[in-house]
Amino acid sequence: MASLMSEPEVVTRAGHVALVGRPNVGKSTLLNALVGEKLSIVTPRAQTTRDAVTGILTTERAQLIFVDTPGLLEPQYTLHRSMQQTALAALLDADVVLLLLDATRSDELPTGEALAALQRQRHTLLAAVNKVDAAPAAAAALESWCLAALKVRPQRISAVTKEGLETLLTALEAALPAAPFYYPPDELAIQPVRFFVAELVRETVFEEYEDELPYATVVRVEEYREGSDPVYIRASVYVERASQKAIVVGRGGAGIKRLGARSRSKIEEFVGAPVYLDLWVKVLPGWRRKAETLRYLGYPVPQGGGGAGAAPGRERRQRRGGSDGATGGGKPSD
Ligand SMILES: Nc1nc2c(ncn2[C@@H]2O[C@H](COP(=O)(O)OP(=O)(O)OP(=O)(O)O)[C@@H](O)[C@H]2O)c(=O)[nH]1
Ligand SMILES: [Mg+2]
Question: How far is the CA of 54 from the centre of ligand 1 (A)?
Fold first, then answer.
């Protein structure tokens, strides 16, 4: 008993840090920079992230479980409401919330339900003004807003140049509760490989196609044969209309070939092995607006947006990359 009591106590800190903010402020870029691995997809366009993407950073003193979230927006259709629900759930579940503001967009500030949730979260709220490499002058206005609205002084950072990230990390570590590590120290991600594969294809859709098309696109990995060489992956790219399918496929199949080749090289880098990517374009009419198609695709269905049985974000994340057995109507058509 005496010898047990005299052993030195190692105090570690651990918990969830939700990265929240308006679309395009750099949440996913920051997650990748902090974890040191590209886990969350990044595009120059707003509303890229649709899921809570988790990345883990274990330091000597702390384990930070970062949760990247969809941008806080004014929902316009059912998928938006699903994204908003995912973001707010991550915010409410977190041990620490990091609100990101964008130095290049001093008008992009949280409003409504999101602002109210942040104000309620004040005791665990930190804030940062990102992209100071691009527009350091605009940071002052955002700092004033943050102090007035949330009583928090934001730090100045750049997720791209990594300026300010060490100081931010120290502040985040200090804000976490004392706790043992929840994951092995070398663990970086929680979501299954299938999730990241689908996201990498979706990111490439953002890069290859313009206007509304990337927003009308969702990717589902239908089959993943790890044992085969190369790794065989069959994935469906769902769009909302036949005209969109024609655009993705392109003249003589040139579009889908380019999408497949570019996606494959990203996936090979991610899984570290040669990959055969079998990509199919399918039409799932109006999938963004219908509860049953969203459910089929694994998105949480917001309350009031499709009746009972909406899966909360955490459960859905595990299911989405799991078996192909997800059902719920909305049968895809070719
Ligand atoms: N100059 C500069 N650009 C940045 C910085 N951080 C992110 N960006 C750019 O901002 C754009 C949006 O970045 P994302 O990380 O996708 O933003 P997000 O907040 O995750 O966006 P959503 O997922 O749409 O909500 C990309 O073009 C990034 O390269 C930064 O520190 N400096
Ligand atoms: Mg994002």
Answer: 17
Which of 20, 24, 98, 161 has most ligand 1 atoms within 8 Å of CB, for mutation? 24
Q: What is the DSSP string of 81-137?
A: HHHHHHHHHHHHH-SEEEEEEETT-TT----HHHHHHHHHTGGGEEEEEE-TTT-GG
Average pLDDT, rounded, for the chain: 89
**Rg, the chain, Cα only:** 21
Amino acid letter, residue 87: A
This prediction's pTM: 0.90
Ligand that lies nearest to the alpha carbon of residue 160, given by its number in the listed order: 1
Compute the average pLDDT of residues 198-224: 98
Give the span between the Cα atoms of 12 and 269, in whole angstroms: 33
The residues facing 189 across adjacent strands are: 55
| CA gap 103, 159 in Å, rounded | 12
pLDDT in tens, 275-313: 999 999 999 999 999 999 999 999 999 876 443 333 333
CB 32 less than 6 A from any atom of ligand 1: no
Q: Nearest bound ligand to CA 48?
A: 1
CATH number listed for the domain at residues 2-175? 3.40.50.300
Q: What is the mean pLDDT of residues 316-327?
A: 32
Considering the domain delimited by 193-320, tell me its CATH architecture.
2-Layer Sandwich (3.30)
Domain spans of the chain, in order of start: 2-175, 193-320
What's the one-letter identity of residue 113?
E
